[in-house]
Design goal:
By secondary structure, this protein is of the alpha/beta class. The protein is about 25% helix and about 15% strand. A seven-stranded mixed sheet has the order 3-2-1-4-5-7-6, with helices on both faces. It has a two-stranded parallel sheet with strand order 8-9.
Length: about 300
């Protein structure tokens, strides 16, 4: 399919769709380092600009629009979240482009916290908006660990099918489970995922294999909790904007923070995926991304649509 990607960030969602065989014809993000990362690894079709400033006529026609619209206003990690947070309105830009371009399908990704904002009224409004735009809409919470990602990251995946298209989208079947029962593979632990990487304090030529020296202080707060090396990592977060601090998970040895490369691996980026910017920027790009393996599993379901239509 021809895919337009909004709020593309460093490219986790897009890379999953590319790996599944789709063609990203246009992408957009406002953050300069994320755009540089995207161009370095994926292509020059990404436009760095505020989506509010882009007219829909500047966006090419497509079969599918995808977008992990900014979630800081919705996340339970944001203790100041509320329905009037200006960042929450960015989904309306996704809605605007969908209304104007009228793709056959769309996919929107967000944090699980969006379901409970204002006792569910915000999410209900979002679903009604997409339905009124001419789409049959469904959603499901997916846990990335159930798709081979070494991280327990739950995300709401909203899918819309244009109402004139007689197709019922099916979410991907889980390939992994906590205990590896019911014919599934066992969850991938954080220690298993990070096994290939040497001590970053030794000489190494691995790109982005550097870590924050911010002191570990295990006090129970986010970013200050010891990791169980035998389980998937907890959710990688990117709390804060591009001027503030970030939350960096400890390494499973619980003696230092994860390197940028290790955190990217927890998000299932390929080991040779190069991130641009300083360490804080890279940590934030990684924390904002959709895990590549989960994106790939979802993208394959759109392959099934293509096969049936052919």
């Amino acid at each position: 399919m021809k895919v337009v990607s909004l709020f593309s960030g460093a490219g986790g969602l897009d890379l999953g769709f590319i790996q599944a065989g789709h063609n990203i014809v246009w992408a957009n993000d406002v953050y300069d380092d994320a755009v540089a990362t995207y161009k370095t690894n994926i292509g020059n079709h990404i436009i760095q600009s505020d989506i509010h400033c882009i007219d829909s006529t500047e966006i090419p026609d497509c079969d599918l629009i995808i977008g992990g619209f900014p979630c800081q206003g919705f996340s339970v990690a944001n203790i100041k979240r509320h329905s009037q947070d200006t960042r929450n309105s960015l989904y309306k830009e996704l809605l605007r482009v969908i209304k104007d371009k009228k793709p056959r399908y769309f996919l929107a990704e967000n944090v699980k916290g969006i379901l409970s904002l204002d006792k569910g009224s915000v999410f209900s409004m979002i679903l009604k908006d997409f339905s009124a735009a001419g789409y049959n809409v469904k959603y499901k919470v997916l846990n990335s660990a159930n798709f081979g990602v070494p991280q327990k990251r739950e995300r709401v995946i909203i899918v819309g099918v244009r109402k004139d298209i007689p197709y019922n989208f099916e979410y991907p079947e889980e390939t992994h489970s906590e205990k590896g029962d019911d014919g599934k593979l066992r969850w991938i632990s954080v220690s298993e995922a990070l096994k290939p990487f040497p001590d970053p304090d030794t000489l190494n030529n691995i790109p982005n294999h550097v870590y924050s020296k911010y002191k570990l202080n295990f006090n129970g707060y986010m970013g200050h909790r010891p990791l169980d090396p035998n389980k998937p990592a907890p959710t990688v977060t990117a709390r804060g904007d591009n001027k503030g601090g970030v939350v960096i998970l400890p390494h499973p040895n619980n003696q230092r923070r994860m390197t940028c490369r290790e955190l990217a691996t927890i998000q299932s980026f390929p080991h040779d995926y190069y991130f641009c910017g300083n360490s804080s920027s890279i940590y934030r790009q990684i924390g904002n991304a959709v895990p590549v393996k989960m994106a790939y599993a979802i993208a394959k379901q759109f392959n099934l649509i293509q096969n049936e239509s052919n």
